[in-house]
Model the fold of this input.
Amino acid sequence: MGNPNLRQYTKLHATMAARDPLEKSAKGVPAMNCHPIRIILLGTVTVLSPVALFAQSDPMAPPASSTTPNLPGQAHPSTTSIQESTGMSSDASEVMKDKMFLRKAAAGGMAEVQLGQLATQKAGAQDVKDFGQKMVTDHTALNNEMAPIADSMGVTLPKKLNKEDQAEYDKLNALSGDDFDKEYVAFMVKDHHQDLREFRTEAASTSDPTLKAAVDKGSKVIYEHMTMIDKMAREKGIATPGRNGGRPATPPSQ
Done:
């Protein structure tokens, strides 16, 4: 019969011996196959690394439009053409400014005439009545001198008072006597100081000789009116720009 323990040990040893080559073979296959795969992956990374670095650095480069130098045949704006264009724009702007002045001067002149007519009717003091009449006479003449110039420039002159002047006319029309005098004189002071500034500005800026001659003449007339109304205002205790610390206007050049 033999020793049963010996037979069991012999059988187990034989089984393990038979399994050992299979396990080694099974374990060796993946180990042998891993080397080529690792080599391929490393080679791929090595080949792609410069591309990856280039791709990473490329987005950091400035846009082509900001770094591209001017091409030899590239056209540049002409300085002469820019100056010519600016000159044309300046001329057109000056003509427009002249037209705006003529419209505003005509509106102001119309107001001086109508308010002066009102003063001759409603003023309490004779000196105020006389000043009102002078406004009618002088500004009618000035308006008639400006009208042909405006017509030659295609300017349509106003036919009625603007809102501000109409409001002042309505206010004065509701007054009489001393109340009228104070309001009328105060308005004439403010109006003539403003008109003189605008006439002198236009005379200094316009290049139209006919318009400049008319504006220079108008400036002298308005300056005469301003000195008269300032004196009248001081006599009546009404403030004037020069009296309140403002700089009085200088006489016009002869």
Observations:
- The mean pLDDT is 76.
